[in-house]
Write a structure and sequence with these properties.
Length: 325
Amino acid sequence: MNKRTSILQKTAFPGNKSIRVLLVFFLVVIGAPFFFLGGPGYHGARSFVALWDLGHVLFFSLTSWLLCKSVRYRLAEVSFLTVQSYVFLAILVMGIVVETIQMGFDGRYPDLFDVFRNQLGCLIVFAFFCPSKKRRGKLFYLYQLTVVLLVGVALYPLSRGAIDEVIASRQFPMLSDFETALESDRWREKELISIEKGLARHGEHSLKMQLTTDTYSGVALFYFPGNWQGFESLHFSVYHPDEDPLEMVCRIHDADHNNEYTDRFNRRFVLAKGWNDLAIPLVDIQRAPVNRLLNLRKIESLGLFVVRQTKRRVVYIDYVYLSKK
């Protein structure tokens, strides 16, 4: 056997392994464009967003496996720890590059949790698909357990979103009553809200909303069943603790909204002290856009906010529901 043949045997992927490598390489090539194309929209369901994010784990698991195999075949004398270090660093660099490039695409932005998911994919391969026989032992099994726990952390947003989506579907036409632990996740601007027990229009809980002196300050109900066809009115209650009146705006838009003020529903309410029970006929919401009818089958967001307050305020929201009367 000559030297050239020996080198080829070292660097080639023999037999069935070659087919597996080609298959995984093919999957990686197919998956790469999805970092920049497709995916859930701004109002995408939480479960879909979380599932899409888990694509980072799958993609970089496959990529790590390829890199592991490549380094092991080409540098057979290198220790397993060195292989891990090379691959881990390579995945980290690749992930940072992907997050940086994403800034050039509309609606995409860097996410540190994506980097975590990238590296988790790498760790999964080290723990279960490319382990060194020499490293079997208590410490290695502890390492595997740690990786399993990290996988649980990565799966948590998916399970949380899916569970509340089932709850929201069963509660409908109640949109939000804050009597279940996950309901606050349906609302955006998490830093401004918290669940309050003991002050409620219905049940035992309400949503406490902190209002700042920003030009626009408020929250939006983002995640809910969006088909309001067949109902007559939207109801919600707002508790205002202060003596002086407070003007609040309700904004509603559908999936066809073009981001113009005249293409959505906007209505101002003046809140008196105490509970304010508000109702909006859906026909008013439907006819709000200037040049079309708002699509009641595809409601995307319900916002409540104030404008240019001179001081911070607090209000409480409760009992958001649709009725047929």
